[in-house]
Amino acid sequence: MRLDLLRHGETTLSHTLRGHTDDELTENGWLQMQSTIQQYVAGGTNWDVIFSSPLQRCHAFAINLAERLEIPLQLNMHIKEMYFGDWEGISTQSIYENEPELLANFWQFPIKYHAPNGESLEQFLQRVEVGFDEIHTQMKIHQWNRALVVTHGGVIKLLTCLARHKHLNDLLKMSAELGQLYSVKMYKNDSLSFEEIKE
């Protein structure tokens, strides 16, 4: 099964750690996503289904696109961004000024450190795996082979890390640009596994 992972575009709070904060896309953010999708559609890409995070920076665009392409849309509660607890909606600059050591530890060793009252990387990994397990099941039932997944930077970085067999401490070094698309293959034997697709 092929998954094309589309990160949402710029949002009204793009300068902050948004996490579960439900901010909207800016006009530019919408255009970033539209421009990326247009290239794929023009190149003949056909998706069988769209899966989306329920947060509106993903969901609003996904609804519009599913209607235009006339394909099914399914929301998945488990593919939301990592929850940043006390850091939700706060800029990294502000966090750096107030808690420089904690922020530095989080960037370097995300397995060991997380935002105060936020989700640990282990919790995030388990939640995202549940989400993609559900996506795998749905694709198998409906015999869908290719899905567009509208999601978040953290989710894309996590799947890229898994697909490249990297240590999870390398998570934040993975690329996930606003409005860009990243592709992986998804397999399931005893457990889910991912493989990066390079165009």
From TrEMBL:
Keyword Iron recorded: no
Enzyme class: hydrolase
Gene3D superfamilies: Phosphoglycerate mutase-like (3.40.50.1240)
InterPro entries recorded: His_Pase_superF_clade-1, His_PPase_superfam, PGM_Phosphatase
Keywords for the protein's UniProt record, in alphabetical order: Hydrolase
EC number(s) per entry: 3.1.3.-
MF GO annotations: hydrolase activity
Protein name per the record: Histidine phosphatase family protein
Gene source species: Acinetobacter junii
Record lineage: Bacteria, Pseudomonadati, Pseudomonadota, Gammaproteobacteria, Moraxellales
